[in-house]
Amino acid sequence: SQQGEEDPQALSIQEGENATMNCSYKTSINNLQWYRQNSGRGLVHLILIRSNEREKHSGRLRVTLDTSKKSSSLLITASRAADTASYFCATDAGGTSYGKLTFGQGTILTVHP
Amino acid sequence: DAMVIQNPRYQVTQFGKPVTLSCSQTLNHNVMYWYQQKSSQAPKLLFHYYDKDFNNEADTPDNFQSRRPNTSFCFLDIRSPGLGDAAMYLCATSRDAWGRNEQYFGPGTRLTVT
């Protein structure tokens, strides 16, 4: 079964607004990662948060992790038209998984100029 | 620049005609992955290699095979493509399988089956 589920499936905002995407997962994890995918392209790694971390920042990105609720959120502040893309969370279950990631279904973000 | 390269970017093949997709990396990473991504869906892991240790996912169809002849190259073979195999195929690498295992993706090969 799908490990990660993302919410909302689609998000449409105006430039300058903040965008928040949520991810829920089912099993324990070693870390959780967020990726961006522009239409028809490969995925780009954004940020990794370990299971013992609660919050991480990278530029305009803020990621939180609540392992008790098995959920994570990605906040993009002061969004730009160039942020328009699909955003995926991915979980690493650790152990003998050889770094395998299980991706959520993704959130399609559209930022209007 | 160090990167993950996939060739070709677009591949058209006929129903049942074998096709091979290629991936190379200049990152010197230990782990390589092949994903299948259909329209508006999450990437689905098909295979991964830790060095030359090969692992296929339990639900990867037998129609798909993979080869990693050396650290830099990895190939995906589709023996008899069906219409349902039309998808974007993504290659990715990670430095290691544990700890910081963020993945670096190539641009993908879009496969069309006619």
Walk me through what this model shows.
The complex is a heterodimer of chains A (113) and B (114). With 113 residues, chain A is an all-beta fold. Chain A has no helices and eleven strands. The mean pLDDT of chain A is 92. Chain B is mostly beta strands and 114 residues long. Helices cover 0% and strands 51% of the residues of chain B. In chain B, the strands form two sheets. In chain B, strands 2, 4, 5, 6, 9, 10 and 11 form a seven-stranded mixed beta sheet that branches. In chain B, a hairpin with a 6-residue loop joins strand 4 and strand 5. The termini of chain B are far apart. The chains are: A mainly beta (113), B mainly beta (114). At the A-B interface, strand 4, strand 5 and strand 10 of A face strand 5, strand 9 and strand 10 of B.
Helix/strand layout:
The complex is a heterodimer of chains A (113) and B (114).
Chain A: E1 4-7, E2 10-14, E3 19-25, E4 31-37, E5 43-50, E6 55-58, E7 61-66, E8 71-76, E9 85-92, E10 101-103, E11 107-112
Parallel strand pairs in A: 2-11
Antiparallel strand pairs in A: 1-3, 3-8, 4-5, 4-9, 6-7, 7-8, 9-10, 9-11
Chain B: E1 4-7, E2 10-13, E3 19-25, E4 31-37, E5 44-50, E6 53-56, E7 64-67, E8 73-78, E9 87-94, E10 104-105, E11 109-113
Parallel strand pairs in B: 2-11
Antiparallel strand pairs in B: 1-3, 3-8, 4-5, 4-9, 5-6, 7-8, 9-10, 9-11
- Please report which band the strand proportion of chain B falls in: under 5%, 5-15%, 15-25%, 25-35%, 35-45% or over 45%: over 45%
Query: Whole-number radius of gyration of chain B?
Result: 13 Å
The low-pLDDT segments of chain A are: none
Overall average residue pLDDT of chain B: 91
Show the largest interface. Answer: A-B, 26 and 29 residues
The first-to-last residue Cα distance of chain B is 36 Å
Query: How many helix segments of chain B?
Result: 0
Q: Pairing-aware structural class of the strands and helices of chain B?
A: mainly beta
The number of helices of chain A is 0
Shape of chain A: globular
Number of strands of chain B: 11
What is the overall silhouette of chain B? globular
The overall strand count of chain A is: 11
Strand share of the residues of chain A?
Answer: over 45%
Question: Which radius of gyration of chain A do the C-alpha atoms yield?
Answer: 13 Å
Question: Major sheet of chain A: size, sense and barrel closure?
Answer: 6 strands, mixed
